[in-house]
Every structure is written in structure tokens, then in C-alpha cells.
Amino acid sequence: MRAAQLTGWRAPLNITTLPDPSPPEGGVVLRVLACGICRSDWHAWTGADPDVQLPMIPGHEYCGEVVAVGQGVTRWQVGDRVIAPFILACGGCPDCAAGHQTICTDQVVPGFTCDGAFAELIAVAHADANLTRLPNGLLPEVAAALGCRVTTAWQALVGRAQVQPGEWLAVFGGGGVGISTLLLGRALGARVVVVDVVQDKLDYATSLGADAVVNAARTGATDAVREITQGGAHVAIEALGIETTTVAAMRSLRKLGRMVQIGMPAGEHVTMNLPMDALYSGQLSIHGTRGMPSWRYPDLLNLIAGGHVDLAPLVTRRVSLTQASDELAAFDHPAPPGVAVITDFAT
Q1: 299 and 284 in a common domain
Q2: N or C: which end of the chain has fewer CB within 10 A?
Q3: Are 8 and 135 in the same domain?
């Protein structure tokens, strides 16, 4: 199979030919139809994630067609088109049985703990417990985002913050997961303000229905959000993983507000100085989130099928496997609006 392999930190990915994977017991092999290029992949590319051991094929946000089935798989057969969450839970431990697959101690994470989907084929563990059928009519490049960015945003809004219609939702970071949060928040009836330092991203958020935007490079984000929302947001989403936006998100909340940390803290941001006075005096609730349990897929897919949210505008760049290195390097600076998805694995 053709694959893009990470062989050195911050080095261009090595486009190479590797043996086709075999399905693990309980798993399948997919022909990859599309794979998103995510900021988390950039963390792996820079060497900031300690789970990544070289060489590694990146890519954790994907959908595909089953081409081989391992022993013990009962739900899937060759030819099925499926979506895979980026956390592949075992399905049998106490946490999985309680519905908390994202904290499974035996989880497998493609692109981080095993080879990922910047390749023509990928072996997917624990298929029965994780895979969801790809709905007819949902484009693969859009479905790929249902493996990470969109589902992470859905879990943050529904599973953690439990956002309610009419509430103010402040999204700090207008990248892929931030725009996903905007689209889903609007579909859930929230009023959304997006904060970023790149005006192009804010203009893009406005075109997608943001009620307000704040350019934090030009004005104080916290005061601006509190003014727009007349006292502070009910819910704040941090979608970058850096201290500046985490602090601003906390301080933008009204009393009894809820914040969800979506952005992955890495490198110098693993440890942050946070305003505990705001947490205490505001009686805030702060949540972490990572991925989405597979049992939440039906509600999300029903929202999409019912025409309540259009995720197609999220994808602004369809690229080839050979362009993946350039897209990863782009995260060193403010990336263009929307997300890039690999749809061509042959060139």
C-alpha cells in the first residue's frame, strides 16, 4: 500500500510503499476513503506527543470501506462503508460497559499508538465496539471529520457542557474543531460568538452563522465576550490548547458558567497558570473532553440526516497524500479557514 510515514520530527513525511496490513483479531482492514489533517496530527509531527514512536503513519480522522475482516468480527463484512472514532475502545472493560469508551484503558489510537490513515489501507482494532455505518449521501470527506473534530465538539456540547437552546456559547479558536462547535452549537439553538486572532477565520465564522465574532488581536477578548453576551457566556469552549485562550475562556464566563477544554495542551502548555479566583468566585464548572463514545453517533447522524446542520462548509481543501506534509507545516502559523482532507491517496 502507499502511505505517508513520519520518520523524523518536523521532517517531510516519507511517501513510501509498505506491506498491506492484516486484520487483527476482532478488527478489520479499511480502504481509506478520506482522512482529515488535524492539529493533533501536527502535535504528533512535532514530537510533542509522547505516545508516538517512530516510524509512524499519522492520521486519526478517517472513514473507509471494509476490505478484510478479522476473526471474531460479527457486525461488519467486506464492502461495508464505515466511520471510525479516533479512540478505538476495547468494548469489554468496566469503563466501556458504563458508556465511557473514551477513557478505556485498553484503547488504541491510530496515528499515535499504532499506524494511522495517511495511507491507502488501515487496520482498525475492536471493530464491533467502535465502527458506525457511513450513511448514504454523506460525502467521505465530510464523514472523515466525524472521526475527530465534529464528534469531539458534539461530546463537548452535549456530553459535557449540556448546552441549552438560547444560551450564549463562546468558542475560543476558529480552526476545524472551533468551526465544528459553531455549526453544532447553532443547530442546538445556542447563540455563538467565535474568538480568534485571524480575521479571515472570523469572516468565515460569520458566513457560517456566528452571532458575533471577536478579533483578540485587536481587542480584549474577555471584555468583548462579556459585553456581547451581556454578562458572560453560559458555555465557553477552548479549541486551541494554549494558556492564553484557556484563561480568556474561563474569564469570559458568567457565574455558574461551564467551560470545556477541547484543545489538546502539549509542549509548554501542558502546565498552565489558571485564574482560580474566577473558578471560585464564579462557581464555574471546568470539564476536559477527548473524543466521543461510539454510542453517541446515532443522535449526531440523525441531526445531520434531518437537515439541521450542514457540515460540508467545514471542508475547504481536498488534498493528495503528497500534500499532507505542507498541511501539517501550516499549523506552525495560523492555518487557512476550514479543514484539509486527504481524498487522493494515489498522487
Answers
A1: no
A2: C
A3: yes
Distance, CA of 61 to CA of 144 (rounded, Å)? 5
**Beta carbons within 10 angstroms of residue 195's beta carbon:** 32
Bridge partners (DSSP) of residue 287 are 260
- Rounded CA gap, 25 and 128, in Å? 11
According to DSSP, residue 126 is labeled: S
- For residue 232, the tally of other CB atoms under 10 A from its CB is 22
Q: Is the pLDDT of residue 347 over 90?
A: no
Task: Count the Cβ atoms, other than its own, within 10 Å of residue 65.
Answer: 17
Vertex 173 angle, CA 235 and 46, to 5°: 130
> 331, 325 in Cβ contact below 8 A?
no
Whole-angstrom Cα distance, residue 28 to residue 69?
5
**Residue 245: CA atoms inside 13 Å, Cβ hemisphere, count?**
28
250 and 113 share one domain: no
Question: What is the number of structural domains in the chain?
Answer: 2
- What are the beta bridge partners of residue 176? none
How many Å apart are CA 326 and CA 337, to the nearest integer? Answer: 15
Q: Phi/psi at 70 (nearest 5 deg)?
A: -85, 165
Contact 39, 176 (CB under 8 A): yes
DSSP 3-state helix, strand, coil percentages of the chain (rounded to 5)?
A: 30, 25, 40
For 220-238, what is each residue's pLDDT tens digit? 999 999 999 999 999 999 9
User: DSSP secondary structure string, 320-331?
Assistant: EGGGHHHHHHHT
Question: CA–CA distance from 55 to each of 4, 18, 215, 237 (Å)?
Answer: 10, 12, 39, 34
pTM above 0.90, yes or no: yes
